[in-house]
Design a protein that fits this description.
This protein is mainly alpha-helical and 1824 residues long. The chain has 92 helices and two strands. Among the domains are: 14-114, no CATH class; 115-270; 529-635, no CATH class; 774-941, no CATH class; 946-997 and 1047-1092, no CATH class; 1482-1606, Leucine-rich Repeat Variant (Alpha Horseshoe), CATH 1.25.10; 1618-1823, Leucine-rich Repeat Variant, CATH 1.25.10. A two-stranded antiparallel ribbon has the order 1-2.
Length: 1824
């Protein structure tokens, strides 16, 4: 029963529904279309929701209703459907599918009909949860949303709508939406041949377009709308990146432009290594068209070429893209071999290949590398080398780069065969120059791939390299050389041979690589351990390879050859390298000398060296080869001696060689050879040599020189043997040498003495037997030697003095030793360094104990000075392995005497001499003895004295003395004991820190040099100023003898500085050994050393750098550990009184602070800035420059520390807290221009990088920058503005120029940066400071800057400014009024307007009312009013739109201000606010009328005048529409007419006239008496004496008469006008007779009378126009009087024209009357008037034409005459009149020039002729 009951109730319910639906259908059918929309808004939702019913009857009824609805609305798109209600039904969770289907159908229909606001609001709602909707509805919803975007958002998205789109937070919704947007962007209008656009599948295309393709304009707006919405959603860059990329290559320019903009602005920070993003981009590029497992309609086609190119350029910046196999591979092959590829794509594909090879992971590269390589090679094979297309060339270049990179990453691809090497070397030969560089780089990279290759491959490579080593192309040779040096080690002979060949190459770079390969490049940085680690090839192996390449080297020749087998440079490096191989092999195993294999190798080397001596060889080669033989001989003397004993004649050839070194080497070799010869043979050789020297036939210099050298070496060798040569031969030899020394020039004499010295090394030189007398050789040569030593030949002097030392090695005679000492000491004043070094060497030999042997000197390329690096090297390394020359006890006494003499000379005379050159010589000699004889007990005892001497000499000005003294200190340290070492360290530290003890005083004599020449300028007379005497003279000449003490103090300071520098040189060596002894001093040394390394003196810098390197192992670590100490010391020195300390401190600080962290410099930061600014204002330019450098370094440091992207926020804020206040107070406000400019630049950079860290300082920074806009402006602009008016420059233009310059300044840029970081918290501090600055700021730029900043600030913060609007408006509004500058006024008005936008309604209303009220003020107030209203309209239009009723009337009335500038401003405003003037006036008429009445009633005449002008304008525009308000206006005007006259009162009269014209019907109908009142008021105004006012009254009277057209007015007005006319004419006639000059009279009369008579006549014309004919006839006499008087008197021509016009009007009235009464006879009075007119006027008119020469008068007069004649002809008078003026008229016609007047005159003549004929006919009729 229950079920039955339920069933029946359900049925009943369905029936009720059906019935209800039926009623709805009926209602729908009966409803008019106009009321259909409200009905549907309720009916449609209910009907659609009824589809959820299970009843088929209900559903059928619903479908019937919906069918009816469809038919009714289908063709009426203006009928809206209930969009929101339908969506709500659709969104219900339990909605039936059928309901949803119909809902979506009607939502689509409703969306097309909805208004913009509703669509905007619903679009974002549609997208929320779209992913959860049924799949079949996704496309519809997304299409609807994007359609709305195109229609509503193509130009932008407002904040409210943007906020709704941001609420789409579900990731799937976003993903679905972005995917659809991307497809829409990719969609293009495709041709018929393509089913879908590139980048899309068929399914995706249908999804985007729906039922039909999109049109071009719709597609454009839709894409722009999508881009704007996506931007507003503020999504992650990675999500929107593909979309923006696709847009940037669209075919429609606006989309491309917008896409590019968003790509740079919004997606620049996208992570290109995001895998999802890269996968999306690869899908875009490759598509899925080739995939077999994808349905055909879902296969995505690859992107178009433009998009592909864009994508590849992106892939070239992504590491992930390089590791996305297989997409990477598909992309590369698509670029190179794709069906639609382009040359640009090929180029980019190769570029991407390079990127992939460089950045892909090795496991990925193993998969792709071989495939890509094959593709590259294939592409290279297909591209012609002659193709000139740039992109093709670039593609080829990238291909070679890719091969090079791949060879580095995957060498195993190339290692097993040389095909690629052959290919690249061949390419280098055949390709054009453009490609060779990239091929060269690839070839060099390929070399690394073959490291560790199989031996067979390496063997093939050897062959390849040898084959290509001498190719013509330099790039080929370069690569060969690079391969040879990088692929093979030093022991590899073929590669070293290639390097030898390369050393002779024409290209410098190839030669350098070759030398590097042979390790022949000088590298001072190479340590000894590195040199020892080198493994050279075996000498025999290297020689064998060379000989195989050039077998001719094995041929031996007795005489020198002509031709070389290799170039000279190749020989040179070959010899060098082979010698190194030789030395290396001997060092490894000294016993190898005796092995036959080694000896045969040495023999082959000697043979090669002999071939190098061929005549074709260079001098350098000959010298080097001969020296190489000596080097071999010094190691293997027996072999060389035995070899060259057989080649004496070959050696003798070389004795006359042109090269000195070659001759000397040949002479040494002869010495070697003689040791293998028997004594008789040696004696014969000596005799031959002597004979050649002393023979009759004088040899050329080279032969003499060689022979003398050989005599010395051969004799010395023979004397060392037993038995020696015979005494007679020995004596002959000595005599020959002495004779040459005495007789020859310095060059040969020095060689002879050198030979004596070489002999003296072996045996004491015996006395010479001359004429049975025994004479000592030194005695004989004494004078000659003294003469030679005082000569100019430096080289000769060196040889001689060293030879003197050699002579005395075995000498025991005190007299001879004294001569030698005397000769050596004679060089103490020499200024030639080499001479001093040579003398020091000689004195060392005299002192004894020099660690060299005679054989070392005679049989090796050895020099004591060279071995010690001229006393600056570590002599122990070069001398330790040599033994001493043996001495016996008998010689000790001799040494004691010599040592005493040398010691006395050094310490008593030279070291403390008053002459600097003697001190220098003493230093050199003392150092020589200390270095060469340091281990001698005598020297050991003298070490304390030597130390004191060197310490004293550290302060010398002479650099050599100073450096050698410091070197001496280090040697003393090495030689001394522990206590001495400790004392020395203390002394040096004290010297460096400036606390050393006083040095021993040196007595000054007259010529003692105190300063170097030029250091302190010139004397008073222009001479030099350096010696003690010259300084004393200057002091006396200046009358200040005490000045000499200041000079000496300066000299002591210079000496102190020099002492520091000198100490530094010695210290650098001592520091290496002192070790722990120096640690206690480091704390005081390090700050000083750091500063001294930046000393202005380069020498001091170098010296201190030596110490630093010696003292400090890790420079960075040491500075880091002692940073505070160093910085504190440098900051103190920045304020030193010494400029060099200030300069060096600034430079040191600039270097040290770079790269420091905040915690390292925080406590010094303010002091550093203070020091920098102080230095920038220093008195000395170099200090200022160093201050600039410090400032730049500090700027870089501060900017980095304050940049939140590089430093933590807290540290950035602390940095700003320290630096910014200082810069704002001390920097920008500084009086120094450079400091101000620097400070502004720094502040700008800080603001740019600091970001939010700048917020706490915003108020200070902003105020400072705003004040600086004026304070830092060029003062010249202020001056120009003051005098602008005098030179014709407009002040406003100049102001605008100043403002534009200021807005381009760094200060304004900083302000822009500040605005970007303002937040609500910053406003609390910023607004009060700005308010204060508004009140107190001065200067145009500052004032405008404040206003502009407020404007920008409010735009930035938006609604957050609301709490401050009241305060700002109260502040800004008075400022606008008070500002005098137009630019400043506009700026503050803009600020006021932007604040108004966010003000409360009450504040807004008050401000607008106050602004409008300004129009009643003075000019400044009116301008302020206009500017304010203009700003409100442009910047706060939404606010102003509610107050137009208050604004429009003010604008309208103010348009009529007298001041043209003010009225122009309001005119512009009026045009902006009104599209139709009439509509605007009608809309705000009541308010305008009210304001006009208020203005007319005000006490201001100006207000009255502009109100009256406004009435005139109202009347003109509105016409009769003004009738409803005429009463009020007219009443106001009439009230103001009586009373005194004031300037502009005539405007009231014009207003009355205008009102009368526009509202005459209303006035006439409402109250006819008003007309009379108006006429009365105007008529009375005509009687006023004021000329202008009276003229206005007459004009007004004319208009009033015409407007009302009242016939009665004639009788009232005409008598008045006649009276005025007659009185004026009388006045005029009284004066006219006095005027003689007609032209002048006319001008005067125009000025005095024409205007009133004109107006009077015009009024009469108006009266005639409205008058009754009888009234006119009643005034006939007066009228004729007026006309005749006007034409006959001397009135101006303008008056005559008015009179003629009046005459025409009268005639037309008469004509009209005659026309109206054609059937009745004419009135006798009319006939009388016509006759009078005809009789009186034509003669006057004719006279007027003849006398007045104005064309206009002629035309008007002719017209009047024609009208009169016509009127007369019409009457046909009974009595015939004889026309007297006809002849004159004919004459005027003939002379008339005006065409129109001439035509009229012709008509007049014709009519008169007709008239005459008619008269004749009438007369004949009468007579008949």
């Amino acid at each position: 029963m229950a079920e039955t009951s339920s069933s029946s109730s359900s049925t009943k319910s369905d029936e009720e529904k059906v019935e209800m639906l039926d009623r709805l259908l009926t209602r729908l059918a009966l409803c008019d279309d106009s009321k259909l929309q409200p009905l549907l808004s309720k009916l449609l939702p209910f009907t659609v929701s009824s589809l959820s019913s299970n009843s088929s009857a209900v559903r059928n009824k619903v479908l019937e209703i919906l069918s009816h609805v469809n038919k009714r609305v289908k063709h009426q798109p203006e009928i809206a459907l209930p969009l929101s209600e339908l969506w709500n039904i659709y969104s219900e969770a339990n909605a039936a599918s059928m309901v949803r289907n119909f809902c979506i159908l009607y939502i689509e229909m409703a969306m097309d009909r909805a208004d913009t606001k509703e669509k905007e609001n619903l679009a974002a709602t549609l997208l929320s949860g779209v992913s959860k909707l049924p799949l079949q509805h996704h496309e519809i919803i997304l299409r609807l949303a994007t359609k709305v975007m195109g229609e509503c958002h193509s130009s932008g998205v407002n904040d409210e709508v943007a906020a709704k789109y941001k609420t789409i937070c579900y990731s799937q919704d976003r993903k679905l939406f972005l995917e659809f947007c991307l497809h829409t962007i990719l969609y293009q209008q495709s041709s018929q041949s393509r089913e879908c656009p590139p980048g899309l599948s068929i399914a995706q295309t249908h999804r985007v377009t729906g039922k039909q393709p999109l049109k071009s304009d719709i597609l454009l707006t839709r894409k722009l709308g999508i881009l704007n919405v996506i931007e507003a959603m503020e999504l992650a860059p990675e999500l929107v990146y593909p979309l923006y990329v696709a847009a940037s290559v669209d075919c429609q320019e606006p989309v491309v432009k917008r896409g590019d903009e968003l790509l740079k602005k919004k997606a620049a920070g996208a992570n290109l290594d995001d895998s999802d993003l890269i996968n999306t981009l690869f899908l875009l590029f490759n598509g899925t068209a080739g995939a077999q497992n994808v349905a055909p309609e879902s296969r995505v086609t690859p992107a178009n070429p433009a998009l592909k190119a864009k994508l590849v350029s992106i892939f070239c910046r992504s590491i992930t893209a390089a590791n996305s196999f297989p997409s990477t591979l598909q992309c590369i092959f698509g670029c190179i071999y794709g069906s639609d590829t382009t040359s640009r794509l090929k180029q980019l594909g190769m570029e991407f290949t390079v990127w992939v090879f460089k950045h892909s992971k090795i496991d990925q590269l193993k998969l792709m590398g071989p495939v890509i390589l094959s593709g590259i090679l294939k592409s290279l094979d297909t591209v012609s080398s002659s193709e000139s297309d740039v992109t093709v060339r670039d593609s080829k270049t990238f291909a070679y780069q890719a091969i090079g990179l791949l060879s580095q990453r995957m060498p195993e691809l190339f290692r097993d065969k040389i095909d690629m090497a052959v290919r690249l070397f061949d390419a280098l030969k055949v390709e054009t120059q453009h490609f060779r560089l990239s091929i060269q780089e690839a070839t060099n990279s390929l070399a690394t791939a073959y490291k560790g290759a199989p031996s067979t491959v390496l063997k093939d490579l050897e062959t390849l390299l040898l084959k290509n080593s001498q190719e013509e192309q330099s790039e080929v040779r370069f690569c060969v050389m690079r391969w040879a040096t990088s692929l093979f080690d030093l022991q590899h002979c073929p590669s070293r041979f290639i390097c030898m060949l390369g050393a002779a190459d024409t290209k410098l770079d190839i030669r350098e690589i070759a030398l590097e390969g042979l390790l022949l490049v000088k590298d001072d940085g190479q340590s000894m351990s590195q040199m020892q680690d080198l493994v050279y090839p075996k000498l025999g192996v290297m020689l064998d390879f060379i000989l195989r390449q050039q077998p001719n080297l094995l041929e031996s020749a007795e005489m020198r050859e002509q031709k070389l087998h290799f170039p000279s440079k190749t020989y040179l490096v070959m010899i060098e390298f082979l010698l190194k191989c030789f030395e290396s092999e001997l060092e490894q195993n000294i016993s190898i000398k005796g092995l036959s294999d080694f000896q045969s190798s040495v023999e082959a080397l000697c043979l090669l060296l002999e071939h190098a001596m061929a005549f074709e060889g260079s001098v350098e080669l000959h010298a080097r080869a001969s020296k190489a033989l000596i080097a071999i001989g010094s190691c293997m003397p027996e072999l060389i001696a035995s070899r060259y004993a057989q080649k004496v004649s070959w050696l003798k050839q070389l004795l006359s060689h042109v090269d000195l070194d070659t001759r000397e080497a040949a002479a040494r070799l002869l010495g070697f050879a003689s040791s293998a010869l028997a004594t008789p043979e040696s004696s014969a050789l000596i005799s031959e040599l002597i004979a050649s020297v002393s023979g009759r036939h004088k040899l050329r210099f080279e032969a003499q020189h060689g022979a003398l050298c050989a005599v010395g070496y051969v004799t010395a060798d023979c004397m060392s043997r037993t038995p020696a040569i015979p005494d007679t031969l020995f004596q002959s030899t000595l005599k020959c040498l002495v004779d040459v020394a005495n007789s020859e020039t310095a060059a040969l004499a020095s060689v002879a003495i050198q030979a004596l010295g070489h002999i003296g090394l072996i045996v004491p030189l015996p006395s010479l037997s001359i004429d049975s007398n025994s004479v000592d050789i030194l005695t004989v040569l004494h004078e000659k030697l003294r003469k030679l030593l005082s000569g100019d030949d430096t080289k000769a002097i060196q040889k001689i003095v060293i030879s003197i030392g050699h002579m005395c090695v075995k000498e025991t005679s005190s007299s001879r030793l004294n001569i030698a000492l005397d000769l050596s000491f004679s060089l103490c004043r020499s200024k030639v360094e080499d001479v001093l070094f040579a003398a020091g060497e000689a004195l060392s030999f005299l002192w004894g104990g020099v660690p060299v042997t005679a054989d070392l000197i005679l049989k090796a390329n050895y020099s004591l000075s060279m071995a010690s690096n001229f006393l600056m090297g570590d002599v122990n390394l070069s001398l330790s392995k040599n033994s001493h020359i043996e001495t016996n006890e008998a010689e000790e006494d001799r040494y004691a005497m010599v040592r005493g003499a040398i010691t006395k000379k050094l310490f008593d005379d030279l070291l403390y001499s008053t002459r600097k050159e003697e001190r220098c010589a003493g230093t050199v000699w003392l150092l020589s003895i200390t270095m060469y004889c340091g281990h001698n007990p005598a020297v050991q005892k003298m070490l304390p004295d030597i130390q004191e001497a060197f310490s004293h000499l550290l302060g010398e000005q002479n650099e050599l003395t100073q450096e050698l003294a410091s070197q001496g200190m280090s040697i003393v340290y090495e030689l001394g004991d522990a206590s001495m070492k400790e004392n020395l360290v203390h002394a040096l530290v004290n010297s460096l820190t400036g606390s050393g003890k006083r040095k021993r005083a040196i007595k000054l004599v007259e010529d003692s040099e105190v300063f170097q020449e030029g250091v302190i300028g010139e004397g008073l007379s222009g001479g030099k100023l350096s010696t003690y005497k010259e300084l004393c003279n200057v002091a006396n000449e200046m009358g200040q003898p005490d000045l000499i003490y200041k000079f000496m103090d300066l000299a002591n300071y210079q000496a102190s500085l020099n002492s520091k520098r000198g100490a530094a040189f010695g210290f650098s060596k001592i520091a290496k050994q002192a070790g722990d002894a120096l640690k206690p001093h480091l704390r005081s040394l390090i700050p000083r050393l750091v500063r001294y390394q930046y000393d202005p003196d380069k020498n001091v810098q170098d010296a201190m750098a030596h110490i630093w390197k010696s003292l400090v192992a890790d420079s960075k670590k040491t500075i880091d550990e002692n940073l505070d100490l160093i910085v504190d010391d440098l900051l103190i020195q920045c304020g030193s009184r010494l400029w060099r300390s200030r300069e060096s401190s600034c430079l040191a600080l600039a270097d040290i602070i770079q790269g420091r962290k905040f915690d390292q410099v925080a406590k010094h930061l303010r002091k550093l800035w203070s020091a920098a600014f102080r230095a920038m204002d220093d008195i000395k330019e170099t200090v200022r420059n160093s201050g600039d450098k410090l400032c730049r370094a500090l700027t870089s440091l501060t900017v980095r520390l304050s940049d939140v992207s590089l430093t933590g926020v807290s540290e950035a804020r602390q940095t700003m807290d320290i630096v910014l206040p200082f810069l704002l107070t001390e920097g920008i406000l500084s009086k120094v221009d450079s400091i101000r400019k620097a400070s502004i630049g720094i502040v700008m950079k800080l603001a740019k990088g600091a970001g939010i860290a700048i917020r706490p300082h915003l108020s200070d920074l902003v105020c400072c920058m705003l004040e600086s806009l004026s304070s830092l402006e060029d003062q010249g602009l202020n001056y120009v503005e003051l005098h602008a008016a005098n030179v014709g420059i407009q002040t406003e233009k100049l102001e605008n120029l100043r403002i534009s310059i200021a807005k381009g300044s760094p200060m304004w840029e900083t302000l822009d940066l500040c605005i970007k970081v303002v937040d609500s918290e910053a406003l609390d501090q910023l607004v009060p400071r700005l308010a204060q600055l508004v009140r107190s700021g001065v200067g145009l730029n500052t004032r405008v800057g404040i206003a502009s900043f407020i404007t920008l600030l409010v735009q930035k913060v938006g609604v957050e400014i609301k709490p401050y609007t009241s305060r700002l408006l109260r502040l800004l509004f008075p400022v606008v009024k008070d500002e005098k500058s137009a630019a400043s006024k506009r700026a503050f008005a803009s600020a006021c307007a932007i604040v108004l936008k966010h003000a409360a309604p009450t504040q807004a209303e008050m401000l607008i009312d106050d602004s409008a009220a300004l129009h009643n003020g003075d000019k400044n107030a009116q301008v302020s009013c206009a500017i304010l209203l203009k700003s409100y309209s442009s910047m706060a239009s939404d606010v102003v739109s509610g107050y137009l009723a208050a604004i429009i009337p003010v604008i309208f009335i103010s348009r009529f201000e007298d001041d043209k500038f003010v009225s122009g401003l309001f005119e512009e405003l009026w045009e902006e606010h009104t599209s139709s003037e009439r509509v605007a006036l009608q809309l705000y008429l009541e308010e305008i009328v009210s304001l006009i009445c208020e203005g007319i009633g005000s006490s201001s005449w100006a207000s009255k005048k502009k109100s009256a002008l406004a009435i005139s304008k109202l009347s003109e525009v509105l016409g009769e529409s003004l009738s409803s308000h005429y009463h009020v206006l007219l009443q106001s005007l009439m009230k103001e007419i009586p009373g005194r006259l004031w300037e502009g009162k005539d405007a009231l009269l014009y207003a009355i006239a205008a009102l009368s014209v526009s509202c005459h019907k209303a006035i006439s109908s409402d109250d006819p008496a008003t007309m009379n009142e108006i006429l009365s008021v105007v008529s009375s105004a005509c009687t006023k004496k004021a000329k202008k006012y009276r003229e206005a009254a007459l004009s007004c009277l004319e208009q009033v008469v015409k407007a009302f057209g009242n016939q009665e007015f004639f009788n009232v007005v005409f008598p008045l006008l006649y009276e005025m006319f007659t009185s004026g004419t009388l006045t005029q006639s009284g004066k006219a007779t006095l005027v003689v000059d007609a032209a002048k009279a006319e001008e005067d009369q125009v000025e005095k009378f024409s205007v009133p008579h004109n107006k009077v006549l015009d009024c009469m014309t108006a009266c005639i126009h409205v008058a009754h004919i009888n009234d006119i006839l009643g005034q006939q006499k007066n009228l004729m009087h007026v006309f005749i008087a006007t034409m006959s008197s001397g009135l101006p021509w303008t008056v005559k024209i008015s009179a003629l016009s009046s005459t025409k009007e009268l005639c037309s009235r008469l004509q009209k009357v005659l026309d109206d009464s054609q059937e009745s006879p004419a009135n006798a009075n009319i006939i009388s008037l016509v006759q009078e007119l005809f009789l009186s006027m034509p003669p006057q008119i004719v006279e007027c034409i003849s006398t007045v020469k104005v064309a206009q008068v002629h035309v008007t007069a002719s017209e009047s005459l024609l009208v009169i004649i016509k009127l007369y002809q019409k009457l046909r008078p009974i009595r015939c009149i004889d026309v007297q003026f006809k002849d004159e008229l004919v004459h005027l016609y003939e002379v008339e020039k005006n065409g129109e007047a001439k035509s009229l005159l012709k008509k007049c003549i014709d009519m008169l002729e007709n008239l005459k004929q008619e008269s004749v006919q009438d007369d004949s009729m009468c007579m008949s």
